[in-house]
Amino acid sequence: MSWINMISYEESEGELREVFEPLQYEPGKIDHIIQIHSLIPSTMASHLEFYRDIMFGRTDLSRKERELIATVVSIYNECHY
Predict the structure, then answer these.
(1) Residue 64, Cα to own-chain centre: how many angstroms?
(2) pLDDT tens sequence across 14-42
(3) Which of 14, 19, 51, 81 has its CA 20 to 30 A from that of 73?
């Protein structure tokens, strides 16, 4: 299994803490898929923009179809997200 160093919410400060604030799913908790960008926060913004475009951008797929695809891919990848 690969390992990527991350800065936790508790360890974060300054600009990174500001970026983390609205992304907490519980107080002090950040999903690892977001937290992996903590060493280079500019990639976090790109990742979030990419996600929003896929899930909410203009397409012929309905929101339900997009969620279904995301769920199947997560199951296939053994991802709990």
Answers:
(1) 19
(2) 989 998 999 899 999 998 888 989 999 88
(3) 19
Model confidence over 36-71: pLDDT tens digits? Answer: 899 998 888 888 899 899 899 999 999 999 999 989
Please give the Cα distance from 47 to 44 (Å, whole number): 5
Question: Which pTM value belongs to this model?
Answer: 0.65
Which DSSP state fits 77? T
Cα separation of 15 and 43, whole Å? 13
Give the 3-state secondary structure of residue 25. coil
Q: Is 37 within 8 Å of 23 (Cβ atoms)? A: no
Measured CA to CA, the distance from residue 25 to residue 8 in angstroms comes to 13
For the stretch 48-81, what's the b/e string if a residue is b when 16 or more beta carbons lie within 10 angstroms of its beta carbon? Answer: eeeeeeeeeeeeeeeeeeeeeeeeeeeeeeeeee
